Amino acid sequence: MIEQIPSSIFFVDADFDVAAIALRLDGDYAVSEEEVDRGEEEFLDTFEWGLYWSGLALARRGRRYRLFSADGVVLGEGKGPRRKRPFWWDFPDGPIRDGITAGADIRALCPKLRMSRVRRSFHLLNVDEKTVLRLWLDHVVVGGDNQGPVEQTQLRLAAIRGYEHEYQAVRRLLQAEGLGQLVDGMHFLDPVFAGAGITVESVGSKTVVILERDISMGDGLRQVGLAVLGDIRRNLPGTIEDIDTEFLHDLRISLRRTRSLLTLFCKVFPEIHCNHYRSEFRWITQTTGKVRDSDVYLLKEGEYRSMLPASLHSGLDGFVRGMRAYRSREFRAMKKQLTSPRLARLLKDWQHFLENLPQPAEVAGRDLLCRNFAAKAVRKRFRKILAEGEKLGPDSPDTMLHALRIEAKKLRYLLEFFHSLFPAEDVILLVKHLKKLQNNLGDYNDLSVQQEMLGTFRSPVRVEDPKQVLVIAAALGGLVVRLADRQRQVRGEFDSTFADFSGDESRELVQRITRPAEDDHFSAGEGGRQ
Amino acid sequence: MKTVAIYSSKGGVGKTATAVNLAYAASVSGQRTLLCDMDSQGAASYYFRIKAKKKFNSDKLLDGDIARNIRGTDFSGLDLLPAHFSFRNLDLALNELSKKKRRQALAKLFAPFAEEYDILFLDCPPNLTLLSENIIEAADILVCPVVPTTLSLIALEQLLKLFKKLNADRNKIIAFFSMVERRKSMHLATMDKYSKYPLFLKTFIPYLAEIEKMGILRQPVGATARQSPAARQYEKLWQEVLQRGEPV
């Protein structure tokens, strides 16, 4: 078992006298100031605060990086990448790279907070001049939230193994003075964020909408639609700036979710013409397709490399070079559309549309509870999946699997949009079962698309050397064979995956989820036309 | 965790200076390091200004009561298990254990720390006893400082004999020349004669005043002046030990 070394943080005044601590302790102690470190520092994190939620903080000054735990302990420091928004793989091997890999995943680490910091380090020495406690006085100044700069001073104590007595004595002393303390579970940057007006958003690429239980159908759809629109707007700047591949990925999810919602709108409000929005959202989704596809291939480079013998790796390198060039070209085209007045107008109009959806009173007979409407939609979609899945045999064409994949996706969206209206545990369990089916269908589809693309890819990079052309062709051929093997395997797993999903447990879950509450004044059967 | 024992049956060859400075070099390079002061004289503990807790002694050590007696040094990533005067009787205490247990006792004692530390250094007392056998059993690498003089070489020879007797892996032994005085022709001649043997590392530690001063300053040479010749030499020695023994 690893011995945990205690540490704590107190909030103190800027002119706090550390040396005075020694005088107030029983025994012969002295405080020595070891060093003063001052400079501008910035804290980096992913768009979704992946490091913060992993209990970490990554600071940078020039090319010197320092990784902290949530309680302010330095876990590693050293030279790191020069780029403005580095990825974990840009760091050299060591504790920083090891520490941030899981939290950062494939996301770029972006500057989140800039502060000027003066850090004074002290040692508490015993009669042998042995260090028995380490102390740091951190004075930080950050740009405030419309109220000018915010200043804060923290005193951090870190015990030294075997000298916990001194740590506790100093801690008691500071507590007796009534100093505020960072409580367990708090991140040491929390007070600084609060002062600077920075809100750390909860993790996840999709905004979670909590609907009131008795919300009307119109209001429910509006709230979900506005939340998904918020996701589109949130991910658009990062996509245009090409910060990391997840912005585009999440943008595309939000666009697909919007299109799925539009289908619901059309059914609920047949008198409203949704066709314009349907075609415009289809246009923008298609615009982003080629760049996302090339991202997927580039992200799979390592996986592809492991599938090929070393003799074909240079061929894969040629393919990757070509794919990068293809992506650059397609990215320029996509960026043009994402920054176009057409998209700006679409989002503005869509927001206006959502905010001005007809009130229930204006649309006769539609004063339905959102819950009943959603329940009926879930039931219908589930039945459709069962029916389509049961039709599938070993020789069914890929188009049928594709259709089933789309249906499964629609059910997933429904469950995500309206999860707050259903029993939480049941929804979580059903989504878990659904995910397994989606993974199988998704893998099958991905493998199919990959084989087709690898077989037909025409690199924009001209390769003069005919030998190199052959090596690239051999590498791609090798990959297609491996992917086809894998696809057969995935197809073979479909029957049992579908059988698991379509079993009694899922059926009972859907029944429970969609069962109307006793106090509802509409039975599910009385829902609006769909 | 790799265990590196600094061992010679001869006294005054620079074992403790080697243990203290190599442990410091290891911790500076980011390895979580524990130095165990096995010598009842407690020189390594003295260098780090650490005293053992009053209730600590050789019986507690052999009972495995180690974790709560480890103390942090002034340097991050470097802890020390201090020596106690009673360690002079470690041999007697080991002898009391059953025949089956007595040779592996030390190795077993430190096994629970495998997760917590990357490197365990053992600063060993100068003798050829049951404790030495324990050290040979526990160590992945046995670093033997050799002053380029006849007596010191005899000590190395004795160590090789002991390895043979115990049927231990001789590749564990890494020797290096310690306290080298280049103005002494005997030192130069001895080094010339023996340094061709693969047992010896290329790096040697010269006799330097700053190493002597560790007794006054009570800290590793690298902590006093990171770029001093002695600090650089120990750093180099550690790198060569790492390379040779591939301990991590």
From TrEMBL, chain A:
Domain of life, per the record? Bacteria
Transmembrane regions listed in the UniProt entry: none
What does the record list as coiled-coil region(s)? none
> Which residues are in the CHAD domain?
214-507
The record ties this protein, via InterPro entries, to: CHAD_dom (IPR007899), CHAD_dom_sf (IPR038186)
User: Matching PANTHER family, A to Z?
Assistant: CHAD DOMAIN-CONTAINING PROTEIN (PTHR39339:SF1), SLR1444 PROTEIN (PTHR39339)
Q: What is this protein called?
A: CHAD domain-containing protein
Species in which this protein is naturally found: Desulfoprunum benzoelyticum
UniProtKB/TrEMBL annotation, chain B:
* Name the UniProt record assigns to this protein: Cellulose biosynthesis protein BcsQ
Ranked from the top, the taxonomy reads: Bacteria, Pseudomonadati, Thermodesulfobacteriota, Desulfobulbia, Desulfobulbales
CDD domains noted in UniProt: ParAB_family
List all membrane-crossing ranges: none
This protein's source sits in the domain of life called Bacteria
Ranges where the AAA domain occurs: 1-174
Q: Which organism is it from?
A: Desulfoprunum benzoelyticum
